[in-house]
Amino acid sequence: MPEGLTFVVGILLGMLIGLVASAAFQFSERQRAKPMPTNARKETGATATAVLNAVPQPHIIVQPDDTVERASSLAYAYGLIRDHALRPDVLDVVRETRKDGSIVDLELAIPRATLDDAVDRRVWLRAAPLTGNRVLVLFEDNTEKRRLEETRRDFVANVSHELKTPVGAISLLAETLVEVAEEPDHVRSFGAKLAVESKRLGNLVQEIIQLSQLQEGDSLADSQLVDVDTVVAEAVDRIRVEAEARNVTVKSGGEKGLKVYGDPGLLTTAVRNLLDNAVRYSAPHQRVSVGVSSYDGEVSIAVVDQGEGISREMRDRIFERFYRGDKARSRETGGSGLGLSIVKHVLVDHGGRIKVWSEPGKGSTFTMILPQAFTPEIKELVTTTPVDLRRT
User: Fold this and answer.
1) What are all long-range contacts of 188-197, with beta carbons under 8 Å and residues at least 24 apart?
2) Residue 203: its pLDDT value, please?
3) Among residues 161, 168, 210, 170, which one has the least CA distance to residue 324?
4) Helices 339-349 and 184-214 sit at what angle, rounded to 10 degrees?
5) Are 97 and 52 in contact (CB under 8 A)?
6) DSSP string spanning 293-346?
7) Phi, psi (degrees; rounded to nearest 5) at 129
8) Bridge partners for 354 per DSSP
9) 73-122 confidence digits (pLDDT tens)
10) pLDDT of residue 333
């Protein structure tokens, strides 16, 4: 159970149990067997109500006959209460608590919509006994927390898997080099492969570090005015060697002199990652283009290729970490599956977004869209000779 929720439940149950303990101390067994006076019941009920009103936790109070005494609006919004009655699974928990006098936890998967691909809402709830045979139900929406836990778990698993391949290859190649140390031709061949795997491992580690830094949320602590022309030129320069090796032409053009606010290094990395993908998935003698434009207060940086294109099914997942549609092709091209995820996080941190157009066999266009920076025009001051009013 979440720590914050544990703390709230502890306070709430402690105060309510304290009320019961105080009553047990003040009255004898004979007095406690008698019905509680109306004023005492009102006072206890008012105290419990005041405690619940002070606690921000959504809740439901269930009476001895299983009817709802009071409930937060979220209980109805989440479907825990339908037609003034508890959901069957929630009612089972309430009855179990009332029967055993114990605290019972339960996690529910509640559909958000009737669509097949709708993600279930994960609601954690806890039922605890109250005085008068009533039951208190506290609940919390853990959907986002669960998603983050699953994402973190998948990320660790993917990182471990991705690191195993180059590390294993490097180890194997190193052993082979030792065995063929007296054969120069084999040494050169395996040495070249060792360099490739080492570079792949270095790039993967660097991209993991970049992605973790972007997720910290403070990547724009030193934001500055950035010249888009410089960003594009540097990104093209970084990819030039790879493009020449694959015999792919890279051209840039468009509107000049545009500015944005942000981190020039991160923006350059984002454009380079798009260019890197475009070059890797282009056939020899094809062209990759970078175009810059502005419209309605926004700057667009579009990277266009003539490659294989992306199917509609893949377009919905290409920005996921480590996702690669064609794993064999990605291994051949050296892709890690982190480049587009880094691009997405860079744009989100800069208040921008990315658009994708692609058709299988017709190529792809990735467009980075960023808020345009406007700088005030500074007019030169015109100095004049002061006039001596005494001479006029």
Assistant:
1) 193/169, 194/170, 196/334, 197/166, 197/169, 197/170, 197/173
2) 67
3) 161
4) 30
5) no
6) EEETTEEEEEEEE-SS---HHHHTTTTSTT--SSHHHHHHHT--S-HHHHHHHH
7) -75, 145
8) 368
9) 888 888 888 888 898 989 999 999 998 888 989 888 887 654 444 567 88
10) 47
**Three-state SS sequence of 210-233:** HHHHHCCCCCCCCCEEEEHHHHHH
Q: What is the pLDDT of residue 370?
A: 94
Looking at residue 287, its pLDDT comes to 92
Instruction: Compute the radius of gyration of the chain from its Cα atoms.
Output: 33
The answer to whether the beta carbons of residues 362 and 313 sit under 8 Å apart is no
Its pTM surpasses 0.70: no
Q: Which residues contact 318 (CB under 8 A, 6 or more apart)?
A: 310, 325, 340, 356
CA distances from 74 to 119, 123, 140 (A): 18, 11, 9
Can you tell me the distance from the alpha carbon of 244 to that of 228, in angstroms, rounded to the nearest whole number? 24
Question: Which tokens is 36 given?
Answer: 């509680």
SS3 182: coil
223 within 8 A of 261, measured Cβ to Cβ = yes
AA identity, residue 319: F
pLDDT tens-digit series, residues 218-236: 556 667 899 999 999 999 9
Mapping DSSP to helix (H, G, I), strand (E, B) and coil, where does residue 281 land? Answer: coil
Number of alpha helices (DSSP H) and beta strands (DSSP E) in the chain = 12, 14
Question: Residue 337's pLDDT is what?
Answer: 62
The SS3 assignment for 377 reads coil
First and final C-alpha spacing in the chain: 88
Residue type, 323: Y
Q: Which amino acid, residue 151?
A: T
**Which of 145-149's residues contact partners 24+ apart within 8 Å by CB, and which partners?**
145/2, 146/122
At 141, list the tokens: 């929406």
Burial of 285 (0-12, 13-18, 19+ CB in 10 A): exposed
Q: How many CB atoms lie within 10 A of CB 77?
A: 11
In sequence order, the 6+-apart residues with CB closer than 8 A to the CB of 136 are 12, 16, 59, 60, 61, 62, 127, 128, 129, 130
Contact 371, 295 (CB under 8 A): no
With contact defined as beta carbons under 8 Å apart, do 271 and 290 qualify? Answer: yes
* Tokens matching residue 57: 């936790």
- Using DSSP's 3-state secondary structure scheme, residue 180 falls into coil
